[in-house]
Amino acid sequence: MKTRTLLFSLPLVFLLLFYFYPLVRIVLQSFLPEGVWNPDKLENLFSASTYWRILWFTTWQAALSTVLTLLLALPGAYVFARYQFFGKNVFQALLTLPFVLPTVVTAAAFRALLGPNGLMNTWLMQGFDLAGPPIRIDQTLVFFLLAHVFYNYSLVLRIVGSYWAGLDPNLRDAAKMLGASPRQVFRRITLPLLMPAIGSAALLVFIFCFTSFGVVLILGGPGYATIEVEIYRQAVQLFNLPMAAALSLVQIAVNFLLMWLHARLSRKSQVAFIGETLAGNVERAATPGKKVLVGANLLGICLLLIAPLLALAVSSVTWEEGFTFAYYQALFTSEANSVFSVEPIRAVTNSIGFALAAMVAAVTLGLAAATFLAACRGRFASLWDAVIMLPLATSAVSLGFGYIISLNRPPINLRDSLALVVIAHTLVAFPFVVRCILPSLRQIPKSQGEAAALLGASPFQVFRWVELPIITRAILIGAVFAFSISMGEFGASAFVTRPHTFTMPVAIFRFLGQPGEMNYGQAMAMSTLLMLVTCSAFWMLAQLETWRNSPGKFLCDNKP
Amino acid sequence: MSEHADHILLVKNLCNCYEGTPLLQDIGFALQQGEILCLLGPSGSGKTTLLRLIAGLEKEDSGSIVFRGRDISTIPPHKRNFGMMFQEYALFPHKNVRQNIAFGLEMQHCRPDELLHRVDAMLDLVGLQGLGHRRINELSGGERQRVALARSLAPEPQLLLLDEPLGSLDRTLRDRLTGEIRCILKKLGVTAIFVTHDQAEAFSVADKIAVLHNGVLQQFGTPESLYRRPRNATVAAFLGFTNLITGSLDAAAVYHCPLGRLALESQTTHPGATVTLLIRPEGSQMITPPAVTEPPGLVLSGTVTNRLFQGGSYRVTLQCADNFLTFDLPIDPPPPEVGMGIHLAVNPAALILID
């Protein structure tokens, strides 16, 4: 227990320095802008109707996104939970894609498909001899709502689908035997039982959309601003730091409330956050009606999820004259670029470097925290758990903003240090790692450790030979998640990267913000590369798992 | 088939396959109004499948299930008005005890006042008065079992199906609850089919027993007829009989086996056929040799290899030639210690030739 407490000090110190300290600076900045008590700015904030409008807009666009996502994803969850169909594994793998895809890539992909010079518009203009693009949803609400649905569809499908598949089929049979028709079974039994999962998924979607940054910034244009976007504008474009700090404070408060609600809900329903597979009592779609249902959902998935990504890849290799590698080539030169002073391709090495460092740091901190939390019982257990989860509830933009106002002067001056990016990414990623590892650590029965101890194993040996092998899979999943979160992180990176250390999402954002076909094409090329790097991380994870599950490895595993 | 006129349930040539593997082959039996049938068999014998076929939760591949003179294979389960009690009870976790019991009545659009009355009556019947507002996760295993029974009985089903309803409970509780379930079912006159793998449970609850093994109906009859005349070695072994000896019949229908020659009744009359002799463990008596008058029937002499005091009786295993045979002997006079010789006059009624 003592070593575990000592272990826990590691993530705790990290949080104190790189989470609470910047947070305190934000609070100070908003209440004491020039070192003196001056709540006028805050008063301005609450009296100015603009900011209430921003808050109201942020709320209702998140609510609308949530409702739309649920409407589309719930039929999909049903199909995946109850039916077996051709290519189900492939579809399941595809469904994880949007969830791990950086927001900036999502935004770029929708631009590529439906933007003014996107594929759909180009084709329609050529096909029907139109003078202008017929689909004009760029810089409108529809555009980023669509991206929100894309981003959260698979999240809802996975959470609700796995919960649905896990429902005891005997409950349905019992209701049938008591005289309930299929419709009554659904309304009276299945739906009420699904409510915790649906509620938990809906809340998560709401949180993600409420804190939406990259998608709104890129697809919504200057006309729309969520709180996150406004913080960024106030801080970076208008240099109004006290106002940005005040908005951050509002954002943090709302997020805490939502995360607390979510924690309460998921504790009650035992809904798994990540990692559940959709296995259960499945049947083949036999009747024509069921076949249409399955087919329609799969078609919907193809249109919603696959079309934008395909459009992205296609756009990165086409220009007016047809096929080209010019965009990719341009990434390797510094002259042709007005946006960067160095070759843009450096973003790839920058990002991978930051991501690997953040992954190692996040796994180390996450493992330490999870080991402590798993052993921790009693009143303080849930308190510590909540403290660890705090960074998840804080918006990345606020975090990045907090860093530039706090870590640029003594006592901690990391202004020009590369570590700043890694620290920000680690902070965002490590609660995810804890969430991956903790459930499997908690599932290990206490008696297993006791049995090992009675067989002569020291506490360290118990950890090394009993617990660690059981949680290896969870650690791997956590590591890959940490890696991909870092690869795609945009909100904090927009603040803390320096001109020479820009990451891929930052590069994409800057390309998209510049006019001209060359910049647009390079954004597509960079997004495609980012998509490939993220996907290959998950592909490697899948390969590693098959390798671990192969019989030969199993024998090796049994060797002490 | 006039004898089937008063049968409530008639199962004929029922077959079912799962992905090419036959689960049930040519099952046929009939059940009368108010009877309790036990489907008895080891796990994987197909008994739950048979129950789910009758419930309508699975589809038969061939054969028919006739209920009250009507083939019910096209009727969906929710229109059959059969009750079912599931292995792990399948109580609705989002409803309390009362709401669980009321569910079937609500499906029948029962009037609110009558619903209230019926739920109360059900709670009384299973002895759960006052627990109506408990949540399911606040109940003990035995209480859950009662709620499940009350829930399945509340809509007054025409047939009650019970799938190992006591499987997850401990021995003492099971013994008490089997008695209670039989009592309640008999009081209401419900026709019921009860699935179990425990022969003691089957004997204490059933009017009829159907023994299933590998998807084949091995024997169908009253508990007594099953016990007295198991049809084959599979049934005998499943009922817990261990004294099985292989022998053959000669032309004069005299049975030859390692224990000697015996004149016994047998269905099989082919001379030379291999026939198994079953010696049931009860009713045999110790005799003190040299007996002045040789008693009729079979006398076994051997050495005691195991001797277990069981309260009302001794369970004694003796080695007789190469066979180990087990008998339940009265406590007086006490049988000899392990390693001593023993002579037993076997109860003639306990000798049965089976296929």
Overview of the molecule:
The complex is a heterodimer of chains A (560) and B (355). With 560 residues, chain A is mainly α. Helices cover 76% and strands 2% of the residues of chain A. In chain A, the strands form three sheets. A two-stranded parallel ribbon of chain A has the order 1-2. In chain A, a hairpin with a 2-residue loop joins strand 5 and strand 6. The longest helix of chain A has 34 residues, at 49-82. Chain A is globular. By secondary structure, chain B is of the alpha+beta class. Chain B folds into two domains: 2-237, P-loop containing nucleotide triphosphate hydrolases (Rossmann fold), CATH 3.40.50; 245-355, Beta Barrel (OB fold (Dihydrolipoamide Acetyltransferase, E2P)). Chain B has helices at residues 47-55, 97-107, 112-125, 141-153, 171-188, 199-205, 223-228, 233-238, and strands spanning 7-18, 21-32, 36-40, 62-67, 70-71, 82-85, 159-163, 192-196, 208-213, 216-221, 244-249, 254-257, 260-263, 274-279, 285-286, 299-309, 313-320, 323-330, 341-345, 351-354. In chain B, the strands form four sheets. Chain B has a six-stranded mixed beta sheet, with helices on both faces. In chain B, strands 13-12-11-14-20 form a five-stranded antiparallel beta sheet, with no helix packed on it. A five-stranded antiparallel beta sheet of chain B has the order 15-19-16-17-18, with no helix packed on it. The longest helix of chain B is centred in the middle third of the chain and has 18 residues, at 171-188. The two termini of chain B are 28 Å apart. The chains are: A mainly alpha (560), B alpha+beta (355). The A-B interface holds A 168, 170-171, 173-182, 184-185, 188-189, 192-193 and B 55, 57, 76-84, 86-88, 90-94, 103-104, 107-108, 151-152, 155, 161.
